[in-house]
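Hi, here's the filled form for the chain we discussed.

Project: internal
Contact: R.S.
Residues: 309
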Amino acid sequence: MPKASPLVFFLMFSAVGSTLAEPLSHQQPSAQEMAAKLGIGLPRLPWHLTDIWWRFENPTANFESLEVDVTIDRDIPESYNLYISPVGIAKINGLQFYGGLQTNVNGWASKKSRTRVHPGRGAIFSRWSHDLKQPIGLSHVRTVKGGLCESAGYEGQFCSVRRTYAWKAGTYTYSIVKGDLELIKEKPHTWFHCLVRSHKSDFTTYMGSLRFEGEDFTFWDRNAAFVEIYATSKIPKSGIPKVSVTFGYPRLNGKAPPLKSAYAYYNSEKSPQCAKTSVDLDKVVVEVGSMFLPDKKGVRHQPLVIKSP
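And the returned structure, exactly as it came back:
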């Protein structure tokens, strides 16, 4: 039997390689171009493309942990300001916090420095003061080496930890976990830790911790998630990438709380409409794509029929 020539092997390899799936593209026209085509103006950033709300039957007493899985279907470059927040807003004992993954984290380089740096993609964990008016300082922040922090009042008085994290297409678990107790003026305070686990490597990365007043905590009867385009001094006008984001069912203290209701929230007065939401059993899928005109202006609520795990 005659041997195949190198050219034959090359052609065979090329034919097989051409059948492999191409990476999903994030590219589409700029937000300004899409808005001009529809004859509409753009509101000021940030834009919440969609907000997801889960309403549970009851609050969770003796709160120890919150975990939410999130799957991102394609790589998104750092030329966008994309915020994927599995914990869009949450409350323990009435104290608010949120967090997630960003293509461009930014903040102060250290507790002593007020110089804002933009190191690239990473994770963020923030909390607000009890009334959103009283300043909350960096004594409530515990950073890792090389991590960022901030304490400011431009969106209500808050403090925050941030850390670079090279996330890409894949599935991650974003977690807030109760940690160590600290007494301050004989009053108990508790540190909560932010963790992100990659399902591909099964490696968990510690992002930093925030201190909350109290020792025993009750998590409220809901959770939120969102997909957002935001502004930074580095990128003041970000584009909107094509991307599919899937949020898993929230787990409290390691268990899925019974669901009362769920819905997606859109506000066409505060954000261009370019996201559509669907349900895959117990998961919520947000497809971000081309801009479109909604059926009606203002606030829309889309009921979501989610199968509890």
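Let me know if anything looks off before we file it.
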